[in-house]
User: What shape does this take?
Amino acid sequence: MAGAGDRTTTKKFLAGLWAAILVLTLSAPARAAEKPLSSDDVVLMLLAGASTDKMLAIIEQRGVDFRMNPDLAQKFHNAGADDLVIDALQKAVVKLPETPQAASSPAPAPAPAAAPVPASARPEPDTTGPPAKASAPAAKPKANRVPLADPSPAEIDRIVQEFAAKEKVFKQARDNYTYHQMNKLTEYDEEGNPRGAFQQEWDILFEDSGKRIERVTYAPPDTLRRLIVTKEDLENFRSIQPFVLTTDELPEYDVKYLGHVRVDEITAYVFDIRPKELKKGRLYFQGRVWVDDRDLQIVKSEGKTVPQGLKSKGQENLFPRFTTYREQIDGKFWFPTYTIADDTLYFERAGPVKIKQIIRYTDYKQFKSRVRILSTEAIDAPQAPSGSGTTPDSKPTAKK
Assistant: This one.
């Protein structure tokens, strides 16, 4: 999204407020430099707006009293940590407390951003939420659960190659399905009230010739006030947020094993994914994926689109952090069914803008044609309309 204007008064007010909170928060660590950081300390500093450089310096100076795991990484990401801070925490010196009661590693609650969006925030009544098998870890895991075994380095390499191969099959299979995609982006004011919205709905179909097409079925007027939906955002909706990592894309990414965890009804391997190189004109995924340890298919992805901050014609393009859930379709493939982003975008000129984005992928149906699929093409290509007309959360009255 690009910032649509400069709100100098708001920016100065928020900057002063963040500075005051930051001074109060960082004064305590300065007085107790010998004490290692707890996970709560880290979250508090992130919420107070500590810069990456400041966080790196404090982590190096004090160390931490916990061991990093995927749940903590998710918690810190949702509090505002970037990948440099996460890496520093993973490499930090661990200084565990000596008392028996505190010696065990803390069991963090799952981050709220990965939980299903409340019904009040959905565009219309809908009983279809994130799939249960790909939801965030339960808030209160059983205390006596035996830790899941980590695979050997050789097994990790095999797992990566195998799930990437299955992703390629998955991508080919999904390209042979029709489905409906609802995209909604809501902008909020400084008090947290909806201020404007962008919504488009698409049918992904096939022509009689076998050509795959994208048809806009619903597009009310754009009422966003401080954001502009760009062509990069539309590409993000199509390709990055329903992230697929096949054997074709695998050489472009560094893949790092993070752990073996339980995710509600399933157990999964967690991998950190980041592009090796950012090539001009391309968008990439950077974040984490959860791979079902039985089917070896991605069931959940969480991260952001990079590069951030690209400027075109004076517009700064930023993308929110998001979580995409997959659900098993036709008993075979884990297809994306739900994406949520709940984030604040910090523009140089327009200042911070709070947003929430929801994408739903529904009505998957396998294309039953004897015609060979030759190409894919978008028709009625979605644009980024300007102007106003509907209220931010008005319920659509007529579709298609």
Remarks:
- The chain has a mean pLDDT of 76.
- DSSP finds eight helices and 14 strands in the chain.
- The longest helix spans residues 8-31.
